[in-house]
Design a protein that fits this description.
With 259 residues, the chain is α/β, with parallel strands linked by helices. 35% of the residues lie in helices and 24% in strands.
């Protein structure tokens, strides 16, 4: 898969498909009496180059939605299309191939403990075809500098703080030059300045490279950087708004609380 827009669509004079198209998506965990529905009739569309934040209480299905869009789980009911490719009924090999175009940032970092920060990030660059070992290493260093870790290249994960590990994970996801970026609470372990700097970096990636971004967050400090803010409750998307209106509402609530 190419790293840019759908070239076949461009050549035929039609618009590229959305980065994400979801219709009637439902998902369950468990069997029999233990079966529990975590997503119910989710409809969602995200364009290439759009930054969308997903908010809502813990346990409402946000992370499950990310894993389904990221082709980490089999779709049980409904439709999920990523770059126009239907994931419902897809094979494991098809999902593996699609994941090469998706950058993922998890809450748990998922760094390899035996590799340095530079080597962990280089694993992302290793997915890019046609790059020499030196070029992949240089890209890894470039992304680590971009997230403020240019002086931590050779440290192992156990020598890094939680926030530094999160930034390594972010750099690794960006090193793949993804067409779609899925992030689960990427600023949770970061201070306010670093967290905002990282989201500004993701926003720039979206706008400059046409990369769609879907980010789960509880961080009100970054709402203004989104194109849209969605809210989930009980497995459903119950509200959608522009970032400007959500930010204005949050400011009003803060001012009211201080009076």
């Amino acid at each position: 898969m190419s790293s840019g827009p759908d070239q076949a669509a461009i050549q035929l004079g039609r618009p590229s498909p959305p980065a994400i198209e979801i219709a009637g998506l439902s998902h369950w965990y468990g069997e029999g009496k233990m079966r529990r529905q975590v997503l119910e009739g989710v409809d969602l569309s995200i364009a290439s180059g759009e930054v969308v934040l997903l908010t809502g209480p813990s346990g409402c299905g946000k992370t499950t939605l990310l894993t389904l869009v990221g082709a980490l789980r089999q779709v049980q009911a409904g439709q999920v299309k990523v770059f126009g490719q239907e994931l419902a009924g897809s094979s494991r090999a098809e999902r593996q191939q699609l994941r090469r175009s998706i950058g993922m940032i998890f809450q748990g970092h998922n760094l390899l403990r035996c590799l340095s920060a530079e080597q962990n990030v280089q694993m992302g660059a290793d997915l890019l075809p046609g790059l020499s070992s030196r070029a992949r290493r240089d890209q890894a260093r470039e992304w680590l500098r971009a997230v403020g870790l240019g002086d931590q290249l050779h440290k192992l994960p156990h020598d890094l703080s939680g926030g530094q590990k999160q930034r390594v994970a972010i750099a690794r996801a960006l090193a793949t030059h993804p067409r779609l970026l899925l992030a689960d609470e990427p600023t949770a372990a970061l201070d306010s300045r670093t967290g905002r700097d990282v989201v500004v970096l993701l926003h720039g990636l979206a706008k400059e490279q046409g990369c769609g971004v879907l980010m789960v967050t509880h961080d009100p400090r970054i709402l203004d950087l989104a194109d849209r803010v969605l809210r989930m409750e009980d497995g459903r998307v119950v509200d959608t708004a522009s970032a400007d209106s959500v930010t204005a509402g949050a400011l009003a609530a803060t001012e009211a609380g201080s009076n």
